[in-house]
Q: What sequence folds into this?
């Protein structure tokens, strides 16, 4: 029987699962928030993912439920699991991606290296953390953040007053401001039956809190760091019982330690390079993992791969119009578009390039991406 | 504006255009012969491609019409073109893929190397050709042949009597039986505006008239033969005004000449290796070409690529069930399935593998394909 995967959320991550689903012979269905979203070709239902009845009806005709995002409420997920629906990643794992304080506590239990952190409930507690950490720190809302939202660097405890008000009766997260040399990302695929496949660790470059460029494998990284990153990734995947793709964002410190920054339990922007640069793309691997099928090889297909995001420009800009110019100029570049209306700063596509050196891959990807700037 | 491509025919070639269409942001619509065919995810209409009204209605809302097969009648195609519809390849080019006698005459005009041939209208004419060519020859119906059907080796002119009857008042094609060392295939993409991109020539192995294995690039082939093959391909693409993908099946003779066997004006089984083995797959390239977008690089992504077809076995065999075993055994193999019911001898999928040597690529692909035998 053809396997059916139901994806909750109609964004570009769901869209990019369509291609490998077609090639593998997996039937993909999408519960979209609105009609005509990025994953519209596989749209089979439209509705609110916070509504149990909507999600339950969607889940009825698929073999496994998975996600384009991590925002489906715990009570909805747990109800599905209680009814015997296969949900991957499951609610227990997803709680660690949904709440950063819960995540920090669990990583501490596992002994995973991470920045100093605390859950603080008041301006005084935050000030105490600041005083202990050189007067500056990163404050994060435990829930609801993405792409730099819900994250703020503060030098004065009063700068988080609005979040203390918004999360009254709870704690917010404060973390040391890590003196990092660069940011890395480690992806791991894990099946319900336990098989794991770590991808090579990559370097990510953020601009304004949004992933801008990825270099794979991470240039100039030592063998030991590659192993440590993979160990951190597999330890978290197993320790949190993650199923599907896990992305671990890491700081590489000036003194060569790796500290966990954020987690994502789904295909991730830091893994878009795998579409053209790895034997098994993260989107194919996610489908294999959530269906509990044997995982594919995560090996790179070139010495160097570069991914560059395309962000929307001024209103009215149509990226399709610029596509032809980019194609003509860079016939080696692979441009992926998300079928989304362009808005300033919105991720609307990305470019991958493979080459013998990272300089050459970056040149090709940047030259193509420049047509969309 | 998002470009819309309409594909006539719902088979696996249409199916395999879906993945690159999604990634490029091209909207793909399929006119399928029956509901639920291989390309069902993009099915937007079901009907008879021989019926002008059906095809006209389908063509109304797309920017270009292209094909999963070459069987749409000339009168339907010409009516569309007369009404201003962009049709690629166009009817003038397609006639050479639809009628092998018309093709042989045109290639002779172009001076392209091909086997000795003749159009024969009677047993006596066929016998004369046999007498001139050592007593054996290949007889072909001018139209309606595929995968070895409509092709017959004869040693006696009486063996073609049924075809003389079926094509009464016309001629059938007879060709010399070429003493070939192996079969090759040359693909070329060509845009309406004239840009062309030849792919590296590959070796194809046929079993029972059906493509079984492809090795890319053709192992051990000399530089001069690579150039000659590309020249033959581009000469035919330009001379026949082909738009989209052209495949030229070639005989490599014992004395190292290349002779044209057959033509196909669409993505072709000999190019399935490009999905995982070339910078630009033939399916992406076909979409680019028919939309008159700049063509992508046809360069291989590995030293060696092997493609092996998966044919259906006994009724009731479900290839999805065997997929997991193949995946577990060969994590480097890329298995593509067509979502078709399995019937003995029917193409239901293929496996691609890339490696540093053709021996290694063939080992991986064969090992994975063996699970489906």
A:
């Amino acid at each position: 029987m053809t396997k059916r995967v139901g994806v909750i959320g109609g964004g570009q991550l769901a869209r990019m699962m369509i291609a490998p689903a077609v090639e593998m012979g997996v039937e993909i269905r999408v519960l979209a928030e609105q009609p005509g979203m990025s994953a519209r070709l596989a749209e089979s239902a439209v509705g609110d993912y916070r509504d149990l009845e909507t999600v339950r009806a969607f889940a009825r005709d698929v073999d496994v439920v998975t996600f384009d995002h991590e925002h489906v409420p715990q009570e909805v997920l747990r109800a599905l699991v209680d009814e015997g629906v296969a949900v991957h990643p499951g609610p227990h794992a997803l709680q660690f991606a949904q709440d950063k304080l819960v995540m920090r506590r669990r990583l501490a239990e596992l002994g995973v290296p991470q920045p100093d952190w605390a859950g603080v409930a008041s301006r005084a507690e935050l000030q105490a953390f600041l005083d202990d950490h050189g007067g500056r720190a990163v404050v994060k809302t435990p829930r609801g953040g993405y792409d730099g939202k819900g994250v703020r660097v503060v030098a004065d405890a009063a700068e988080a007053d609005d979040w203390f008000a918004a999360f009254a009766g709870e704690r917010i997260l404060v973390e040391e401001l890590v003196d990092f040399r660069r940011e890395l990302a480690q992806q791991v695929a894990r099946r319900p039956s336990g098989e794991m496949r770590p991808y090579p660790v990559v370097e990510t470059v953020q601009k304004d809190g949004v992933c801008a460029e990825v270099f794979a494998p991470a240039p100039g990284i030592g063998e030991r760091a590659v192993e440590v990153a993979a160990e951190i990734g597999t330890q978290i995947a197993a320790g949190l019982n993650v199923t599907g793709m896990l992305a671990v964002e890491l700081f590489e410190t000036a003194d060569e330690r790796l500290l966990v920054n954020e987690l994502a339990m789904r295909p991730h922007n830091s893994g878009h390079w795998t579409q053209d640069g790895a034997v098994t793309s993260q989107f194919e691997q996610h489908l294999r993992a959530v269906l509990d099928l044997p995982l594919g090889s995560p090996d790179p297909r070139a010495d160097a791969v570069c991914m560059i995001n395309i962000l929307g420009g001024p209103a009215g800009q149509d990226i399709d119009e610029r596509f032809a110019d980019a194609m003509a100029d860079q016939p080696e570049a692979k441009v992926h578009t998300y079928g989304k209306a362009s808005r300033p700063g919105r991720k609307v596509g990305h470019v991958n390039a493979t080459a013998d050196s990272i300089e050459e891959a970056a040149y090709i990807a940047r030259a193509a991406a420049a047509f969309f700037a």
Q: What stands out?
A: Residues 116-176 of chain A form a domain with the Dna Ligase; domain 1 fold (CATH 3.30.1490.20). The radius of gyration of chain A is 20 Å. The interface with chain B takes residues 1-3, 15-16, 18-20, 22-25, 41-42, 275, 279-280, 288, 293-297, 299, 301-302, 318-320, 323-324, 327-328, 331-332, 334-339, 349, 354 of chain A (CB under 8 Å). The first strand of chain A starts at residue 4 and ends at 8.
